[in-house]
Specification:
By secondary structure, the protein is an alpha/beta fold. The chain contains seven helices and five strands. Helix 2 runs antiparallel to helix 6 (about 95-110) and helix 4 (about 55-65) crosses helix 5.
């Protein structure tokens, strides 16, 4: 059995403490905090994402199930869902946006030499959206239909990785094609998108004549991006400075 550090702690080492401290200072995120800092909030939310927790109560119950292990994750006392809720509500969201951009830039550099199995040097992006249903009583500001709320998540994915390079959250009623007005096209890149984004009046005026857009076939009830996964192999970068994560068992 591995007697070293937990897998979660090893993964979060990829988030440099110096970077996080700089962002905390920039947004004054710990001015009135005694014990639940930004690092602890990050641990909670990363744990929730990686283990598919369903809510604050679920996060609290799972983290506190083995209180003797919390110290090794950086906690000085048990996690309270009210404390986590307050942190999520009051801390400046721009801190997490800047942190995400920093991690995306680092990840893209690691994967920039990865092959897609195609004789192309261009950056290839896939663009699509997902509608996320929300409870109307909790999120009344995101009204979608008469019985529920919702938001729409527009994601631009760099297929070398794959790594999300742009994530745009909009009203759930926003048509996919309207997102093209906010999208900045990269000169020389190839964009793969489904027919929901087809509007030639928006697509023709490109910032560079070498921009290419590939529209995948779409059935009447089923969106698909033309078997993209068959065009690439999942592999680790050959020259990577990332640390290896050791298992707990």
């Amino acid at each position: 059995m591995n007697s070293g550090r937990h897998v979660l702690a090893q993964i979060l080492d990829l988030v440099h403490r110096e970077t996080l401290s700089r962002l905390v200072s920039k947004y004054n995120a710990e001015s009135k905090v005694r014990h639940f800092g930004v690092r602890q909030q990050l641990v909670c939310m990363a744990f929730a994402q990686l283990t598919w927790r369903n809510g604050l109560r679920d996060i609290e119950a799972c983290l506190n199930a083995k209180p003797e292990e919390l110290y090794h994750l950086g906690f000085r006392e048990p996690v309270a869902k009210s404390t986590l809720a307050d942190a999520n509500e009051t801390r400046d969201w721009r801190l997490w946006e800047d942190l995400a951009k920093n991690l995306i830039n680092r990840a893209r550099r690691l994967y920039q030499g990865e092959t897609l199995g195609l004789d192309l040097d261009n950056t290839i992006y896939a663009l699509d959206s997902s509608t996320i249903d929300l409870t109307m009583s909790v999120f009344p500001w995101a009204k979608f239909r008469s019985t529920k709320s919702g938001i729409k998540l527009h994601t631009l994915l760099d297929l070398r990785g794959p790594i999300p390079t742009c994530i745009y959250i909009s009203d759930a009623k926003l048509s996919d094609v309207n997102y093209l007005d906010a999208l900045i096209f990269e000169p020389g890149a190839i964009y793969i998108m489904d027919r929901g984004y087809v509007d030639w009046s928006r697509l023709r005026p490109a910032p560079d004549p070498h921009n290419r857009r590939v529209h995948a076939a779409q059935g009447p009830r089923n969106r698909r991006l033309a078997h993209l996964q068959s065009l690439r192999q999942i592999s680790s970068p050959q020259h990577s400075s990332r640390k290896k994560v050791q298992p707990d068992f």
